[in-house]
Amino acid sequence: MDVVFLGLSKAGKTSIIRTLTSKCQPNYQAVFETTQKVEKSELTIAGNQINIYDFYGTFQIENAKPEEKEYLKKCASIVYIIDGQNETYEEAVNYFEKLFAEIVKINPNCNYHFFVHKIDNDGFATLDKKTAIISSIKGQLIDFFNTYSNLKPNYDINLTNWQDQSLSEAFSKVIHKVIPQVSYIASLLTSLVTNSKMEKAFLFDQVNKLYIATDAGPFDQNTYQMCFEMIDVFLDISFIYDPTENGQIKNSEGSLSIKLSDNTVLLMKSFKEYLCLICIIKQENYVRPFIIDYNIDEFCKGLEEMIKVTK
């Protein structure tokens, strides 16, 4: 399963990849040198190895090396990074249009994920300026793909920055397209939610806080953010009582429960493969915790069996 990152130089491709693939605390960032050649990184999610190819910003497809064309031909998804703070964003859009015209010939079924990156408010003189740039980028991309409507290209546009969960949420969508077991995991989560009278359940990779799957119920942004932040709470507690060198996250088992003021209970269980299950349940449906714990254990067993088969 291959994913290719494309975009102009200084858009943030390498920083995003290093953040997603590092087993360090989620807020860890560093400055990286400009990419000069295609660099490969690996990410393991629920037993699946995902190969990520970071293309250099000066890449020109008409001069592509044979191995570079092969990466583009084989990849399931392309993540295209646009620097939302760069006023020459039209150059980035034009660069993608040139790439797409050639990629679609060799990989017509590829998925495209656009990350309009660095869109935190501090990077813009006014909120109106930010809104205008984002609207312009989205409009240009939509208009471009409308010209290829006969090919029915699969794409989404995401707004990302370092300061919230947007980057992890956006890359989660990439994961959903490349991991073949997502629908199976979602069905397990749906059964768990139904049998336990839960409100919602997510399976996360706790290293980079990607959500691998969720149940069939409605997706609510606030609920997702609450689960996302619960991982931070769990990791903070883990580092206090069981610190590691360089802030590296341990591949271990543990659990945490939090009762909110609205009588909602958050349940988290982490287990091997850096996975964690987060469930939301109303207090009135949590009167027999041992039954909920049993159902969660059964879910984990089913997931672990799936991972064994995947490996």
TrEMBL record:
Transmembrane segments: none
Secretion signal, residue range per the UniProt entry: none
CC annotations in GO: Gtr1-Gtr2 GTPase complex; lysosome; nucleus
Gene Ontology MF terms in the entry: GTP binding; GTPase activity
InterPro entries, per the entry: Gtr1_RagA (IPR006762), P-loop_NTPase (IPR027417)
GO BP of this protein: cellular response to starvation; negative regulation of autophagy; positive regulation of TORC1 signaling
Keyword hit for Nucleotide-binding: yes
Keywords: GTP-binding, Nucleotide-binding
Family: Belongs to the GTR/RAG GTP-binding protein family.
Protein name, entry field: Gtr1/RagA G motif protein
The species this protein was found in: Tetrahymena thermophila (strain SB210)
